[in-house]
Design goal:
By secondary structure, the chain is an all-alpha fold. It has ten helices and no strands. It folds into two domains: about 100 residues, no CATH class; about 80 residues, no CATH class.
Length: about 200
């Protein structure tokens, strides 16, 4: 994935410019992790909410982050310290989880937008024709469905009547449907706030 490669390169460039601070043993670990989360990670994740993230891209970013955290902590593979222990010590959540959170946040932002906005039109756009032969390429919507399954959230779809107009029956949903949708929204918000 070209976008993932450029993000990894940009993040390494930013990390190298901060090695004087991040690799200094006199600076406390919690401060180093704050600097990493505030400066380096945003460079790596720039635009990640719009990528159709594949396993390969997530793995590349995860490997990059793990190497950076190990060097920041001054730990090598010879020390035989597990990646989870280093991550827990530095207080940095996995970058794949942060990417998932960003995609779900962006999806919520798109859903709340106006019906005639470009992002909403792009989300609901159906391309005519067949997909090419072979293994289907990962789409953003496929990634979103996977993220929602992992987060335990169901997709909320609005029902629209004939001609794209919401009928009066659909304007006033049943009480149980309203409660179910509100519960799903609460669940999404709690997942997002828990991961922050």
């Amino acid at each position: 994935m070209v976008e993932g490669n450029s993000r990894v390169s940009a993040a390494w460039f930013k990390w190298r410019s901060l090695t004087g601070v991040l690799c200094d043993r006199m600076i406390p670990e919690h401060l180093k992790s704050k600097i990493y989360r505030a400066v380096v990670r945003p460079v790596a994740m720039y635009g990640a909410e719009c990528w159709p993230a594949t396993k390969e891209a997530e793995t590349r970013l995860s490997v990059m982050e793990t190497k950076m955290l190990r060097w920041t902590a001054g730990v090598t593979r010879m020390d035989r310290i597990r990646n989870d222990a280093i991550r827990q010590k530095s207080g940095v959540a996995p970058i794949a989880d942060k990417m998932r959170e960003a995609r779900l946040r962006w999806y919520g932002h798109v859903l709340r937008g106006k019906e005639d906005s470009v992002r909403k039109i792009g989300l609901e756009l159906e391309v005519s024709g067949k997909r090419p032969r072979g293994r289907p390429k990962q789409r953003w919507s496929d990634t979103l469905h996977t993220d929602m399954k992992i987060a335990g959230v169901h997709l909320i779809k609005r029902r629209i009547g004939k001609g794209g107009v919401v009928t009066p029956e659909e304007r006033t949903p049943l009480r149980s449907e309203t409660n179910a949708e509100e519960e799903e929204v609460r669940k999404v918000l709690s997942v997002l706030s828990a991961s922050l």
